[in-house]
Amino acid sequence: MFDTMTLTKAVGAGCGALLAFLLVGWAGQGLYGTSVGGHGDDVAQAYVIETASSAPADEEPAEVVPFVDLVAAADAAAGQKVFGKCAACHKVDGTNATGPHLDGVVERAVASVEGFTYSEPMLAHAAAAPTWTLDELNSFITNPKGHVPGTKMTFAGLAKEQDRANLVAYLSSLQ
């Protein structure tokens, strides 16, 4: 039942199957580039994302200057230029536009301009922070929707602290 011809056929079938698997693997690497390519540790990245852990640990954090001091040293004329971003919705002549007028806003009660309809979130915020202090204005104009979620104000905010200080100095000069 088991002669040499049967054994030869079995060994030939095994070798043929092994050859078929090797050829399919070789074709797959050629078509899809599945090999590492022998680069070792020198792999070129398309871009590198810096993380906080890559910064040296021995650096001291920058000194934080109080916003009140920044406003005291700020340039109101530069703030008037920054106000150009606000002028689309706000006026400083005592009349309301899309937003309430901003003359006299510094140290004014939050949501207190007569004739302007405030959003419910702003009215609720007025109960928590009743006065537009320098720090309150700074926080609000940094990120209005983050500071008062649900506010009708669609402005994204001013990222630069010096721009905010100049703007608040300009608004303070309108008192």
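That was protein one. Protein two is written in the same sequence-then-structure order:
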Amino acid sequence: IFAGGTAAGWVSGGALNPAVAFALDASSLSISGFGASLPYALFQCLGGAAAAVTFKSLHPSEYGAAVAAGSRQELKIKVAAEFIGTFFLCLTAGLSVLGGGRASGFAIASALMVMVYATGHLSGGHLNPAVTVAFLATERGIITNRQAGWYAASQLSGGLVAAAVYTPVAGDAFELGPGEGFGWLGVVSAELTFTLALCYVVLAVTTYSKDMFGLAIG
């Protein structure tokens, strides 16, 4: 709710619930009349139906279909989970940053946390090629070279699709590069240091603490 409300709030109000949309619509009855909530409710319910389709696709075992360990189907599920999780993370990041809200950092962290929890039991919840590289480099047999390649491809694809969605919606784009008053040395220092910290936390908490790992990573 926090991630979606922050990312979508400046675009649509971020109701995310037909009941909330109806309540907000009713509260403005004397100002603009009633009816704006109807298309909101339609698309919110379509979102719920799409969530059900996604869940069924990623959890065939819940519907009596066996998924063999190491099978191609299992790999497809893992790759799809990484794509979906990374897509929503990048969509939240893009809309939150372009929206200019002060809570964008919290929204991105919330999106990462919930998507790690949602995909962790399926794929490990990497949602980041750097994290995948870190797991591969530990040489513990957690992930194969082939699987890492598929993960990275799906994560990058998820980011690109997210950009294709939020750029026309926001009508703006974020120019990547050094902040005002900084050069590329600052960029390298900041990105290297904090990516190192992120990846180390992921490696540590997924190894020794399975319950709260999503909260720690987010």
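The radius of gyration is 20 Å. Keep this in mind for the problem set.
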